[in-house]
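Here's a chain:
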Amino acid sequence: MATRILHPFLLITFFTLYCWKQTSYFFNIQKGLIAWVLGMAIAALGYAFYRLLIKHPVRAGAAWTLTLLPLLFYAPVYNMLQNTLRHRHLMPVFVVLIVTIFLFFFRNKKHFATLNTYLNFLFFILIIFEIFNVFRSYQNDKIWYQRIEEQYTESTAPPLNVAHESLPDVYYILLDAYTSPTSLKKYWNYDSAELLNFLNKKNFFVADKAHSNYDFTPQCMLSTFDMDYIPHYTTTTKRKLMTMAIYRKGIEHNKTVKYFQQAGYKWHNLSPFDMAEQQRTYHVIRIPDASKTLRYMAEMTLPGRGILDITDLKNYQSNQLIINELKSISISKSIQPRFVYGHLMLPHGPYFYNEKCELNPKGYRGKPEKELYLAQLQCTENMLTDLVDTILKNATRPPVIIMQGDHGSRIKSLDLEEHFSILYAIYLPDGEYSDFYPDISPVNTFRILSNHYLNTELELLEDKKNHFIPF
């Protein structure tokens, strides 16, 4: 063990098992095996390269393994520090660390036989423990997930007696982190009069005291689309990633989809969630997906995060894509009524726009977040008025338009009242707003619309914040 250089390959095996444990029941073994083989090849090539430069096999092996550690386990460190550091701050630190490790072993003339033995033994023991953890997590997660999966996938919509010709198109425009006009006045001293006057002229109903049901996007979207409060799954899953998998499954098979498809609606999904048998339009790294094995493993690593940061759509790109698609759909004709879900990462950061809607692809920085948020929100107002005008002007059948925040800005310096405060504006072609009220929350949105257009008789729920039901 003193001279055998096993630890780079043991580390790759441990990393694969660690990702398996983290994603548990959702881990795709075939794709995981592909990743493991690729990792072993990288470990061999990296060791050969270090051996060529450092000359001594044991020193080269130790240097390569200690280099692999920060390369492979970048995400856990970043996730702990993401509220204070961004990638552009942390990545250089990791690069300096890796260079320092290499130079230390390159210049040092010791053999490090004891370190080599220790690393071999350490990763061998960690692999044994991780195999046990994988088995335990899988068995536990399989039981509860199958129960929850059945709950969402097996629920069905009731028979609906509606005529397609009389149904409007529905445009549900979700504005991520869009706080309410009331909060803008209270916390920013900003008057949204221009947007509000525009909405009033277009005969929108604006709920000036509306609030979200939760302050985390997956929870908000699940409760909104499933038209109900959600269980506190974390007490069962014990892990955020597993809870996220439940939210994704619930959103994918939500009641709103089933009700409106039962009524003959064609669904258009322009969001970061799979839904109605349609893939997501873009990815949000802050909302990881345990079922995407290769992507999850790539997100764990420093090179993978760097590549995804380059290849994934930036927020401003996905926002523009969705706005263009919303306009395109409004112009096109369809025999079926359409439900269009457009999830815009606006005015949510990163902040690519100033108040004049001048785009900075690198993002605006150097100012307090409150100022950057307000500037991007002002730009968002202009985008919304243009979008609403386009939909109303070109719609081939009378549209319902819902513009709603999922939660408030959640800027740290602000209180919980702001975190739950949201923009809530809705346009109904018949102007019948008697069921809407000033302090409405999203959990009742599609209950009201289902009753109004699909002839259901769903009771409205009490509007609550952070309310969880038993599981």
